[in-house]
Amino acid sequence: MGAGNGPEAHNPIFQDPGEEKPGWNHWLLIAAAVVGDVPVGRTANDQPSAALVIDGKLIADEIRFRIAEQIRRMKDSVGKVPGLAVILVGDRRDSLTYVRNKVIACEDAGIKSLVTQFPQNCKQDDVIRALSTFNEDPSIHGILVQLPLPQHLNEEKILNALKLEKDVDGFHPLNMGNLAMRGREPLFIPCTPKGCIELLIRSSVEIMGKNAVVIGRSNIVGLPTSLLLQRHHATVTILHALTKNPEQITREADIVVTASGVPNLVRGNWLKPGAVVIDVGTFPVEDPSCENGYRLIGDVCYEEASKVASAITPVPGGVGPMTIAMLLSNTLDSAKRAYDFT
Amino acid sequence: MGAGNGPEAHNPIFQDPGEEKPGWNHWLLIAAAVVGDVPVGRTANDQPSAALVIDGKLIADEIRFRIAEQIRRMKDSVGKVPGLAVILVGDRRDSLTYVRNKVIACEDAGIKSLVTQFPQNCKQDDVIRALSTFNEDPSIHGILVQLPLPQHLNEEKILNALKLEKDVDGFHPLNMGNLAMRGREPLFIPCTPKGCIELLIRSSVEIMGKNAVVIGRSNIVGLPTSLLLQRHHATVTILHALTKNPEQITREADIVVTASGVPNLVRGNWLKPGAVVIDVGTFPVEDPSCENGYRLIGDVCYEEASKVASAITPVPGGVGPMTIAMLLSNTLDSAKRAYDFT
């Protein structure tokens, strides 16, 4: 999936496509039952919080600043800049927004970006042909296909056509295998999981030897996050819709990363006092008091959790900005490899 | 690693090469401290047991019988049999034993087997050349390189030269990635993990929704077993040498699969009453009363565990025989694909 900031990383529809409905429904029912008494969508500034608020926007800005610096140095030194190609099919409003955000972030960092847009009813061969052109273009170091694709296109086949060395989303199974296996190194680490770990590291949260719970097992977030936490020597448990006692297991965790696709799933009483909470969820909920008519909430009931956790990411302004920063970082890394630039 | 039955699958030296020594030492110290009061090496027949003894030998024999049946049918139908090639470097006694066992098992099942043996000081190019010959040989459907290789050979490079379609050990990162990712299918599932799951399924142990603990995170056993349990919808926790409270976490598990490389690590009080225990460990300990002068023990203190568990695999006679049955099964599957035979 094309990495982005915002709801795209956590929409249950494409985050966990193979998930059994009864299971998710069970969780959704829990969430629905509590929504009445949960103050949804509060952000860090709304109320006093016992927890350290992990400011993803600030951390992402720092990372993007350093990336821009390195790209200037690359330009001065080898006369080249990284290039990112985005393939967009159709005109879904959310996809257009994500792609626009990526293009703007690329421009800010000094990365050349190209967007190829196809109509909703385009042919698979046309998409693959465009991919192949980008595969061969030496000025392009990262390619991403903005998901979801229309039903008539074979997502797996299209993604498999992407050159491994340019798979900046890191979703290729070979990349995933190398992420999972000890002693192997993936070419790219998927953007959202990489962003979650960066938030922990830059907030001085020790991972080694800690009990970590990952809620949700999507290929895009849950799975790679669990593998990455294991690489950092956490003891990891992966919860999913068929887990029978998620709150009890979560209460044992020092670190909780949640990408369940269920808003407000994680209540305060799911957490061990002092736990660190990374919330990947993002769901728009109507709110006439907001400028756009809606506000974003996460997987975690922030108001409750922030009183129990020692550190927590807000929604928005937590993981979201990191995803796009990691996309820029992966694209820069790819260009560095291509130009043998350190 | 070449799949086998016996200690090869669990020797900590090559099972978890990247593991931090202090961690393992910590566990080894625990094991050493308790060894005095632990009745090591008892098998299922030595004493009354509360638990169902999962008879791996019997189950493996049934599987091997069915495999032989299918191979006869294949021979009658397409005039071909599966072929397995083994590459053996040096003359390690244990490796020779494993290879001999594999060859005998192949013969019993009707699989053609070829062994190419190189001297200890052989050149890497010679090994890779032999591999390439087997890669191109249409009568060979599975290739395995018996590990460990001598130090001067690059294991990763040699294993990477193996054609994916013939990687019956299933250790290639692409296979591992496809095992990890939902909606993807690996060509082969590594033999020991596949054997563990088969033991559970054939003993009517429900996996879906159960809490499972995997002790050990080797690429060969722990990692693929955890991925496979997740595919079967267990809630999985992976413990390793840096886990701080392994006994406490294990006590929450309905299913425990242990491949820690530490004999007698798992005591009775590590287990929840009624847990199902699959013991991948195999360690020879001196015992003059045995014919060979030694007997085998596992990761689990069998005498204690069998009083707490509802079902348990003995050592020997549990997982070991399944590993080799799964190697035959993978080789047959590969031949079926090659001949489009169902």
Automatic annotation (TrEMBL), chains A, B:
Record bears the keyword Cell inner membrane: no
GO cellular component: cytosol
SUPFAM superfamilies noted in UniProt: Aminoacid dehydrogenase-like, N-terminal domain (SSF53223), NAD(P)-binding Rossmann-fold domains (SSF51735)
Alphabetized UniProt keyword annotations: Hydrolase, Multifunctional enzyme, NADP, One-carbon metabolism, Oxidoreductase, Photorespiration
Catalytic activity: (6R)-5,10-methylene-5,6,7,8-tetrahydrofolate + NADP(+) = (6R)-5,10-methenyltetrahydrofolate + NADPH
Description of how the protein assembles with itself and partners: Homodimer.
InterPro entries reported in the protein's UniProt record: Aminoacid_DH-like_N_sf, NAD(P)-bd_dom_sf, THF_DH/CycHdrlase, THF_DH/CycHdrlase_cat_dom, THF_DH/CycHdrlase_CS, THF_DH/CycHdrlase_NAD-bd_dom
Involved pathway(s): One-carbon metabolism; tetrahydrofolate interconversion
GO molecular function, one term: methenyltetrahydrofolate cyclohydrolase activity
Family: Belongs to the tetrahydrofolate dehydrogenase/cyclohydrolase family.
Name under which the protein is recorded: Uncharacterized protein
Any single GO BP term: tetrahydrofolate interconversion
Domain (Tetrahydrofolate dehydrogenase/cyclohydrolase catalytic) ranges: 54-169
A Pfam family that the UniProt record links to this protein: THF_DHG_CYH
Occurrences of domain Tetrahydrofolate dehydrogenase/cyclohydrolase NAD(P)-binding (ranges): 190-338
Role summary: Catalyzes the oxidation of 5,10-methylenetetrahydrofolate to 5,10-methenyltetrahydrofolate and then the hydrolysis of 5,10-methenyltetrahydrofolate to 10-formyltetrahydrofolate.
